């Protein structure tokens, strides 16, 4: 999600995203598998599709939030492994790309 497109004082919890990452263009990983590791072992996710921001963001964050996040609202994922994700730093890596899926 492109937090830099929101006001500096925006409470990112109001974006209704379960996991927020900094410095990662998540939209570029649609069709890939990614892993997040908070120090207890990686949790692998399939990156399925972009998450389109809804009009409710204009209510919870402020006018123009939906427009500011259009095309930059993050992605919808499916967990592929069990594990623990905690608040705080985590390592991010791409496990497989869209071309690795095979026929």
Automatic annotation (TrEMBL):
Residues 1-94 form the MOSC domain. This is MOSC domain-containing protein YiiM. It comes from the Bacteria. InterPro entries: MoCF_Sase_C, Pyrv_Knase-like_insert_dom_sf. One of its GO terms (molecular function) is pyridoxal phosphate binding.
